[in-house]
Amino acid sequence: MPDLVRYIVVSAGLGALIGLIRQWAEQTGGKPGDFAGVRTHTFWAVLGCLGAYASEAHTPYAFVAVIILVSIHLTAQAITAADNSNPGSTSVAGAMLTLFCGALTFWDETKSAILVAATAMVLLGFKQPIHKWTRAITERDIRATLQFAAITGVILPLVPDRDMGPFGAFNPFSTWLMVVLISGLGFAGYVAIRLVGARAGILLTGLLGGLASSTASTLAFSRRSREQPGLSEHYALAVVAACTVMLPRVLVATGLVNRDFALGLIVPFALMSLPGIAYAGWVWLRRPSLHREGDTPELGNPLSLSTAIKFAALYSGIAFAVKVVREQGWTEGLLPLSFISGLTDMDAISLSIARDQGTEETASDLATRAVVLAAVSNTLLKGGMAIILGSTGVKVRIAIILGLTALLGVAWMFVGPAFFPFGFARD
Which residue blocks in 107-171 are alpha helix, DSSP H? Predict the structure, then answer.
């Protein structure tokens, strides 16, 4: 049967790959790896395939019998084997997954079988790094994870999804959904920093810190520059990286809320990113080695539960103000509102405008200008923080780079729309 032969060959290949990674991981960890390696996992995958075939063509419970027999074998091995070859829970799970890889292949679920095999290979291959990383987890990390879980999985399903208040400007579910979005981006940056470690280099930590919280990163690196003024160039680079990566982060957040509106922000945000990118490239070419152990400050969880509540309140207030401006026809009032809001939080005003975005071209023009102005004011705020708190070297560099960033944003507001009218959302 050509089809059965093909199923057997594919199953054997997947089992061999799982077994190869399993055997390599055990040998790398200092264990002999004699219990379940390439051959054993290949046999298990073929057994799963033949068991599924026999269940369909001959004996209904053949695959179940295969699972039971392999389980009995693993149990007996656990009882009688020496400690160095005693199969643990990972071996049992790997055996069962390999059996199902063979069965899924016969059931014409080859994509699912490949996905299962790939997942097993990744988890088996990263055994030692995973153990090393979990040993480095602190109580603060657990608390941050629990707070993020509460923000996303506990509170969000409980809040009502209906418009409330004057002008129907307040929707609890939509408001908290924005909190989940921003906290998710910030938490991803925090986890990335914890994964790479504080000694990954100032540039990388600045980029990840900007993903988590560009304001917190600016404060941390500026303060550290006073303690180590000799590294002012490095710390200025970190601040610039954090402030620059804030722009694509906001672009991603608004894109998840309003894709068409986010497209209109690409050109101005790309223009505002040029000074930071140019400075990073210049420093990198002059001093390629930016990895210095112990120079990067420790960055905490950017969005705790209390901060999430504050963000929700801020977002609700700004969303209400944007709604009032729209309803009363005070369209030009959106610009000063955006400037003031950008001094407080860039995300809140951007998401509020993106959700309330009108469909008319003039509304799109004004809304895009408002978000760019918020980015300008936020950049000026963080530049001011760095100038006040940083060393002399940081002050000069930040004043030039972030000053150019803000200047390009203002220039685009007056000149850019005439050259890039296609960037705005339209019907």
Answer: 110-125, 127-135, 139-149
User: What single-letter amino acid sits at 58?
Assistant: H
| Cα–Cα distance measured from residue 374 to residue 218, given in angstroms and rounded to the nearest whole number | 18
Task: Look at residue 258 and give its three-state secondary structure.
Answer: coil
Among 45-59, 260-274, 283-297, whose mean pLDDT is lowest? 283-297
Instruction: Specify the amino acid at residue 240.
Output: V
Least confident span in 72-76, 213-217, 266-270: 213-217
28-43 confidence digits (pLDDT tens): 655 554 556 788 889 9
Q: Which amino acid is at 255?
A: G
Cα 151 from Cα 304, distance rounded (Å): 9
CA angle 397, 402, 405 (to 5 degrees): 135
pLDDT tens per residue, range 205-235: 777 777 777 877 788 788 878 877 877 787 8
- Greatest pairwise CA separation for the chain in angstroms: 82
Contact 80, 72 (CB under 8 A): no
Gap between the Cα atoms of 17 and 116, Å rounded: 12
Q: What is the mean pLDDT of residues 307-336?
A: 69
Helix, strand, or coil here: 139? helix
Tokens coding 77? 């091995």
**pLDDT tens digit string along 102-123?**
999 999 898 889 998 988 888 8
Report the pLDDT averaged over residues 127-135: 67
- Category of 167 on φ-ψ map: left (φ > 0), alpha (ψ -120 to 50) or beta: left
State the Cα torsion 188-398-374-299 to the nearest 10°.
Answer: 20
Residue with the two structure tokens 């390629």: 288
Written as one string, the DSSP assignment of 336-392 is: HHHHHHHHH-HHHHHHHHHHT--SSHHHHHHHHHHHHHHHHHHHHHHHHHHHHHS-H
**Which token pair is 408?**
């390009």
Report yes or no: 168 and 355 within 8 Å, Cβ to Cβ: no
In angstroms, rounded to a whole number, what is the distance separating the alpha carbons of residues 184 and 152? 8
Q: How many residues does the chain have?
A: 427
User: How confident is the model at residue 125, as a pLDDT?
Assistant: 76
**Which ranges constitute the DSSP H helices of 29-88?**
38-57, 62-80
Look at the pTM and tell me if it is higher than 0.90: no
DSSP string, 88-120: -HHHHHHHHHHHHHHHHHHTT-HHHHHHHHHHH
Q: Do 304 and 150 meet the contact criterion of CB atoms below 8 Å apart?
A: no
φ, ψ at 18 (rounded to 5°): -60, -45
